Amino acid sequence: MSTTAETIKYKANDFKSTAEPRWCPGCEDYAILKAVQTAMAQIGRPSNEHAVVSGIGCSSRFPYYMGTYGFHTIHGRPLPIATGLKISNPELAVWVVTGDGDGISIGGNHLMHALRRNADITILLFDNRIYGLTKGQYSPTSEKGKINKTAPYGTIEEPADPTGLAIECGASFVAQISATYVKELVNVLVEAYNHKGTSFVHIYQNCYIYNNGAFDGFTERSIRDDNNIKVEHQKPLVFGEKNNKGLVMGYGKLEIVEFEPENVPDSVIIYDETDLSLVRMISDMKFPEFPVPMGVIKRVKSPTFDDAIHEQIESAKTKFKPDLEKLISSGDTWEVK
Asked: How many CB atoms lie within 10 A of CB 75?
């Protein structure tokens, strides 16, 4: 990371490229792009100290629109490339942009191993519950019963849960947020960057063309306060338009209670992002029975893959002294005349 005598203040525009973003009109990818650029400005590192790696899909156009280093890889493969990039240049801030199809379908194997390895990279998974770039086929996160081009009678599968998957794979940082909450998204992105290890951010992102309104039940402005819950470490789990609802622990499960605003009962749970049992219970909440959690759901300290790699290399250097002559003449050798 570069250092200067005076701290340079950056603006979001400092992280724009000269390419004009090309998504469908109104696409929430525009909002995420702005949020990432704003977050990078707040982080305070120059654009040449960031790299954005993507796979294939609407979201994966991202590197072209960033004034950072970028790499548009192949379908489902941004994570091994991003991991290798971080290992080869530890000082680089590495961001991965993927989607529900790219990251969980063909790239699911790489996602699982990236999360368990805990390399110091930040993964942004855009989830619109559809394949948008290829014109409306169902994705791993599509709702059961969703009628689309590859399921004309409705999907028969239960949808994948990106947040739950990340937690069960051992991710050390997991957050969930909607693209409609731009301010909160910026804050989550900065928190994800500041975390040492793999940060996974699941972003609900509406596709106006092929799956419009997929998240209206909990993101539409007039009702979202009653259907979302802001998750913050060491703060009570309260929600509602008047902050008059909360989560309490019932008989082995979460329950919702109502109370007078500004009079939160002691029984309401104080959230702990390091309590794995509570983390799992919160991530397992199903809408509409429970509100959708938004914010940082899990954050724990854990050794990173890239640090372990470099420690192993340095250890090997102290144990083995290179001897080129011995290497050349050892083993089976022969003379060619």
From this structure: 14
Model pLDDT for residues 74-102, shown as the tens digit of each residue? 999 999 999 999 999 999 999 999 999 99
Residue 43: how many CB atoms within 10 A of its CB? 16
Instruction: Note the pLDDT tens digit of each residue in 308-329.
Output: 999 998 888 888 777 788 777 7
Where are the chain's structural domains?
Answer: 12-232+272-310, 236-270
Instruction: List, in order, residues 6 or more apart from 178 with CB less than 8 Å away.
Output: 185, 203, 204, 205, 215, 219, 228, 294
Of 132, 154, 161, 144, nearest in space to 59 by CA: 132
pTM: 0.92
Q: What share of the chain is helix, strand, coil (3-state, %, to 5)?
A: 35, 20, 45
- Separation of alpha carbons 119 and 172, rounded Å: 10
Structurally, at CATH architecture level, domain 12-232+272-310 sits in 3-Layer(aba) Sandwich (3.40)
In this structure, the number of other CB atoms found within 10 A of the CB of residue 108 comes to 15
* CB of 82 closer than 8 Å to CB of 122: no
